[in-house]
Amino acid sequence: MLKLSSFCAVLALSAGMSAAQTAPTADTVLATVNGVNITLGDVIVTREGLPEQYKALPDEQLFTGLVDQLVQQEVLRQSAGEALSPRQTRALAALQRNYLANESLLSGIKDAASDAAVQKAYDEKYAHIDPATEYHAAHILVDSEEKAKQLMVEIQGGKDFAEVAKTNSLDGSSANGGDLGWFGLGVMVKPFEDAVIAAKVGEPVGPIQSDFGWHLILVSETRNKAAPALEEVKPQIAAELQKTAIDAFIKTKMDAAKVERPDITAIDPAVIKDTALLDK
Q1: Model confidence band, residue 279 (pLDDT cutoffs 50, 70, 90)
Q2: How far apart, in Å, are the Cα atoms of 57 and each of 53, 120, 197, 231?
Q3: What is the reported pLDDT for 21?
Q4: What is the H or E stretch that residue 224 is in?
Q5: 3-state secondary structure of 33
Q6: Is the CB of residue 170 less than 8 Å from the CB of residue 116?
Q7: 132-225: CATH class
Q8: How is domain 24-81 classified at the CATH fold level?
Q9: Domain boundaries, given as residue ranges, for the chain
Q10: Residue 181 in contact with residue 247, Cβ under 8 Å?
Q11: Using one digit for the tens of pLDDT, what is the confidence trace for 76-109?
Q12: Residues in a beta bridge with 141
């Protein structure tokens, strides 16, 4: 008789061989419809094409549901017959072209927006940028220099800048006491921006003329805005890298291809709506 330890070893070996023999593969048959197999690979491919909300379903529910769906599709496919119409042939070719084109593109740009690539692009764009000054200012906009001077006298005489703006300013900021919020350089028109840069915090300046009229300006605060954190701009950088990679990949493939285009100027573009041509 085998010793207990040897017997256990034999059982373990037997279990291991059984598990290896029954391990599912992409060719594992899950159902057969009139001799046509539905395999585990078919189910996996179908799942990959599902929207994310369906992929989140419990595995057991999704597994069973996909097998049922593929069985039904195969039954319906067979009921359509084996001979393909011209329309069906073109539709299948279009699906294949679109799928393989997308696969080629995804393969060609798979590393374009990697963490390393995003970090490199971030460093190149932001690492050497000095903090920029931002300004928090309010203004009063009127239609004449005389009116602006009159209001400046009132403010210097003790009237509150915000109250004067609410009563007299001609633009939409008047409801907020002329408050324009925080802004950096390059946002405002040049005469306005120059006055803001030269102004002292808390001291109104003006009148300043721009294309919009005459301004009185009050800078209430300034601050240094540092470069954004990587996580803040990562999606934007990744999108830019992917677009650049897509354009470059397509150009490379197009440059290497022999594309011939006959003269199609005599064809009425409206013909693309003539679906009856698909059946001829």
Answers
A1: confident
A2: 7, 38, 58, 30
A3: 60
A4: strand 213-225
A5: strand
A6: no
A7: alpha beta
A8: Helicase, Ruva Protein; domain 3 (1.10.8)
A9: 24-81, 83-129+231-252+266-280, 132-225
A10: no
A11: 999 998 899 999 999 999 999 999 999 999 999 9
A12: 215
